[in-house]
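User: Could you check the structure of this?
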Amino acid sequence: MNKFFCSLAVLVLMVFGLAYSAQAYDVRAGPIWNNEDAKTKCPPVCANYKGWNGQWTTTVQGQMSVCGCNEPPTSGNPHDKNAGPIWNNGDAQTKCPPACHWYGGWNGQWTTTVPGQMSVCGCNEAD
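Assistant: Sure, the predicted structure tokens are below.
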């Protein structure tokens, strides 16, 4: 009987572990019109969330969709959104407002994550 309960406990822990690891983290991406559009928009949206899992859903018809990203965020603040390279504060003034448009606006902060290749803008709202 004791062996049965130990086996049952291990099975339950394995099932919960698989369920947890299979969870997606939905991140807003603006409107996505179809699967081809999702293939373009979701990979960069999910870059800080261990990549795109291939799923997406429209949440507000014609206005908002979410990409299914793997969780948790791999680096930085989950409010940070990739914006390509940002060279200086003036460049950030141009690139960050659109990058944060669907996330409550830009908070005025930005950071270079890969010199010459990638920067992130600090957005106001959690995903």
